[in-house]
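Batch manifest, entry 17 of 40.
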Amino acid sequence: MKNCSWVNGKGEFGVNYTNKMRCSSGSGDLLEEQSGFSAKFDIFPITLACLIVSMNLTVMVLFICNRALKTVTNSFLVSLAVSDLLAGLIGVPLSISCSVFRDNKFCPPSQLIWRFISVSTVLHILLVSVDRYIAIKYAIRYHNIVTRHVFLAFTSLAWATATFVSFIQLSWREHASLDDEDDNEDTNSAQTIYELTVFVLFFAVPLCIMAFTYYRIFVTVRYHERQIWRYHCPSDLEQAQHTHHNTAQRRTAIIFLAMLIVFIICWFPYFILSFQERFHDNDSLSAWVIYVVYYYPRYFTSLSNPMLYVLGKRDFREALIQAVRRTNTRRNEIRGSTTLTALHAAEQNGGALTNT
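Output type: C-alpha cells
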C-alpha cells in the first residue's frame, strides 16, 4: 500500500500551478504527476464561481435600476463588484483550467488576474473606508469633498494601479514557462523583491490605514452620541433623528469593517504562500491544506463582499426586497391572466358544443 503526499512545483509568477504526488511503497519512491479534472477539488470552485457571478450581477442590476442607490458610496461598491465579477468570470475558470491542463496558456494568466483582483479589492475597500471616514468626520462638507469627479478619479487610479502592479512582472519574465529551472538568479531576486513590495504596499500599509480609519470612525460616532444625549432631552425629535443617523452610520461602518476582516482572513494566506514558494518551504504541505487554506478562501472574498452589503446595507436590502416583490407580482398577474384566458376559452368551447 502506498502513502502519498503532495509536492508542489513552483509556478511562473511565484504561485503553484503544477502538482505532483509523491507515493512511497515498500520498494522505494515513485513520483506520479496528477493532471486532469478532479471533482474533489474542482466542483467547489465551479459552484462558487456561479454564485460569485450571480451575486455581483445582482448588485450591478440593483444599482442600475434604482435611482435611490446611485450614491457615491454605492458607486465605490459597484466598482468593487465589477472586480469581484471578474474573479468569477475569469479568475476561477483560469485557475481550474490551469489545474486541469497545466499549460502556459492558462497558468501565468491565472496568476496575473488573481494578483490584479487582490490589489483591486484592497484598494476599493480602502476607498470605501476613507469615504465612510469623511462622511462621519466631515458630515456637513461630505458632498463637497467626495464628488462624482473624485469618485471617477480615484476608481480610475485604483483600476490602473491594479493593472500596472499585476502586469509589471512581465518586464522581467518575458518568456513564461512551466519549467522552473529556467529561472536565473536575477529573475528570482526580482520576483522576491516584487512579492515583498506588493505585500507591504498593497496589504500591510492599507491595513494600517484602514485600522486607523475605523478606529477614528467609531470614536467619532461615539462622541456624537454623547453630544446628542448631553444637549438634547430624550423626547426631542431632533435627538431621535440624530440617534437614528448615528446608528445607521455605525451599522454601515461595521459592514465595511467586516469586509476588511474577510479580506485579511482570505488573502493573507495567499500572500504567505507566495513567500513560502520563493523559499521552497511548502513541500510538506498536503493538497487539502493548499486548496482549503491558500486557494479557496480568495474565491470566497468575491462572494462575501456583495453578500455583506446587499444583505447588510439597508438601501441595497430594501431594493432587493422590492425587486423580489415586483417579480412575484408580475408572476401572479401572468398566472391570473393565463387562468382567465383558459377559462374564457373553455367557456367558448363549451358554448359551441351546446349549440351543436
